[in-house]
C-alpha cells in the first residue's frame, strides 16, 4: 500500500514515460494554482494530491491491456480525475472527458491545450447530450450512484466495454443495489492506493430494461 506522497508519486512514475511524468508534474502545479480560484478538489486533499487524486486515477490503467485502442469515456471528469491522468499516461488512446459545469469545462480545455493532449476531447455538456459512440472503457469517479450511472451511460457500452468505477468504501454495497442480471457483470477489486476503497470493475454491454 501507499504510505505517503513520495510513494504515491513513485507508484505513478513506474507506470509512465518520462514525458508523461513531466505532464503530470505540470498538471499538479496547474491544479494547485487553479484550486485557489475555483473549488476543483477539496482543500483538505491538496497536501495529498498524488495519493488521493493522481495515483488513485493512475491505478486504473492496470485494468486495461495496452492493446486497447478504442475510446475511453470518463463521466463527470471535474478536475480531471481520472480522465486527464489517463489521457496523459496513454497518449495513444482517445479519451473523452464529459463535464457539464462551465468553469470545470474551461479548466479541462485549458489543461488539455497547455499540456498539448491531442488525444483528449472535452465534451463540455451534460452526458445526456453527448452523441452515441462505442466506448472501449467507461470510467467514473464520484459521478453518480451505480444505477443512475448505468442508466446514463449504457448506450456507450458494447460487449467488450470495460467498466472502471472507483467507489470508495461503498463499492460492494453499490454492486448489491443492481438488479441481479447486471450484478453478475461486475465485481469489486481492492484499490492499490487506499486499503478501504474498492473499484467496481465490469465488462460488457449494459442492457436497460424497457
Ligand atoms: C463529485 S464531482 C467528481 C469529479 C471527478 N470525477 C473526481 O472524482 O474528482 C462530479 C462531477 O460530475 C459532473 N456531472 C454531474 N452530472 C453530470 C452530467 N449529467 N453530465 C456531465 N457532468 C456531470 C459535475 O459537474 C462534477 O464536476
From TrEMBL:
It comes from the Bacteria. Signal peptide: none annotated. Its EC number is 2.1.1.170. It catalyses: guanosine(527) in 16S rRNA + S-adenosyl-L-methionine = N(7)-methylguanosine(527) in 16S rRNA + S-adenosyl-L-homocysteine. Keywords: Cytoplasm, Methyltransferase, rRNA processing, S-adenosyl-L-methionine, Transferase. It is an enzyme of class 2 (transferase). GO terms for biological process: methylation. GO terms for molecular function: methyltransferase activity. Its main location: cytoplasm. The keyword Zinc does not apply. It is found in: Cytoplasm. S-adenosyl-L-methionine binds at residues 76, 81, 127-128, 141. HAMAP family: 16SrRNA_methyltr_G. Belongs to the methyltransferase superfamily. RNA methyltransferase RsmG family. Specifically methylates the N7 position of guanine in position 527 of 16S rRNA. NCBIfam families: rsmG_gidB. This is Ribosomal RNA small subunit methyltransferase G. The gene is rsmG.
Amino acid at each position: 500500500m501507499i504510505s505517503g506522497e513520495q510513494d504515491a508519486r513513485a507508484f505513478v512514475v513506474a507506470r509512465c514515460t518520462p514525458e508523461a511524468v513531466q505532464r503530470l508534474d505540470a498538471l499538479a502545479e496547474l491544479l494547485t494554482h487553479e484550486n485557489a480560484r475555483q473549488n476543483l478538489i477539496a482543500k483538505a486533499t491538496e497536501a495529498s494530491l498524488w495519493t488521493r487524486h493522481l495515483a488513485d486515477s493512475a491505478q486504473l490503467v492496470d485494468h486495461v491491456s495496452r492493446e486497447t485502442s478504442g475510446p475511453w469515456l470518463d463521466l463527470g471528469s471535474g478536475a480531471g480525475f481520472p480522465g486527464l491522468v489517463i489521457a496523459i499516461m496513454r497518449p495513444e488512446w482517445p479519451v473523452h472527458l464529459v463535464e457539464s459545469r462551465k468553469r470545470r469545462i474551461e479548466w479541462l480545455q485549458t489543461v488539455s491545450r497547455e499540456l498539448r493532449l491531442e488525444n483528449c476531447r472535452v465534451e463540455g455538456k451534460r452526458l445526456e447530450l453527448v452523441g452515441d459512440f462505442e466506448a472501449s472503457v467507461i470510467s467514473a469517479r464520484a459521478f453518480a450512484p451505480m444505477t443512475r450511472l448505468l442508466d446514463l451511460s449504457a448506450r456507450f457500452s458494447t460487449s467488450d466495454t470495460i467498466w472502471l468505477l472507483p467507489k470508495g468504501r461503498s463499492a460492494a454495497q453499490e454492486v448489491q443495489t443492481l438488479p441481479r442480471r447486471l450484478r453478475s457483470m461486475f465485481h469489486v477489486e481492492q484499490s492499490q492506493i487506499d486499503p478501504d476503497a474498492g473499484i467496481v470493475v465490469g465488462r460488457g454491454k449494459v442492457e436497460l430494461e424497457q
